[in-house]
Specification:
Helix content: 25-40%
Largest sheet: 5 strands, antiparallel
CATH superfamily: PAS domain
Order of helices and strands: HEEHHHHEEEH
Distance between the termini: 67 Å
Number of helices: 6
CATH architecture: 2-Layer Sandwich
Radius of gyration: 17 Å
CATH class: Alpha Beta
Strand order of the largest sheet: 2-1-5-4-3
CATH topology: Beta-Lactamase
């Protein structure tokens, strides 16, 4: 059996993790073109990677307010720090179906999103990656608790 170099094996593992992790992972360049679209996003949005990669985010998701989203990305690109979008600020960025309609009564997936800078080897922030977490259970519990307090 042919032994693979450790670096190649680790690269393969990283690709497998990105595709199968239970959260959305998207990489956007400075022009907001989609560079990476993982399996979570394919499954939940119904949009295939080959249909979105290389296209502007706002073309694929025209419902995202351009100026608002660009303001959210400003600290990432200008300061090289993270930015956050919580379900309390905006229930979702990407309209994704709720995958647990029997146990969770929601029309869509509530989301918590972290926008992370991605640096080149020289330290320049040239891209960012978004991690999208399904916050539906948390949101519904919080909304139900608020309703019960009334």
């Amino acid at each position: 059996m042919l032994a693979l170099p450790a670096e190649f094996e680790q690269f393969h593992w990283m690709v497998d993790m990105v595709q199968n992790v239970d959260m959305g992972l998207i990489v956007l360049d400075r022009e907001y073109k989609i560079q990476v679209w993982n399996g979570f996003m394919t499954h939940h949005s119904g949009k295939q990677a080959h249909d979105v990669i290389g296209k502007p985010l706002f073309e694929i998701f025209p419902e995202i307010p351009h100026e608002w989203f660009k303001l959210k990305t400003k600290p990432v690109y200008d300061l090289g720090c993270r930015s956050f979008i919580t379900w309390q600020q905006r229930p979702f960025l990407f309209k994704c179906r709720n995958v647990r309609p029997v146990t969770q009564q929601a029309e869509f997936m509530y989301q918590n999103i972290t926008l992370n800078p991605m640096r080149t080897p020289t330290g320049v922030v040239s891209s960012m990656f978004l991690s999208i977490q399904d916050a539906t259970a948390e949101a519904l519990a919080s909304l139900q608790a608020r309703e019960n307090d009334r």
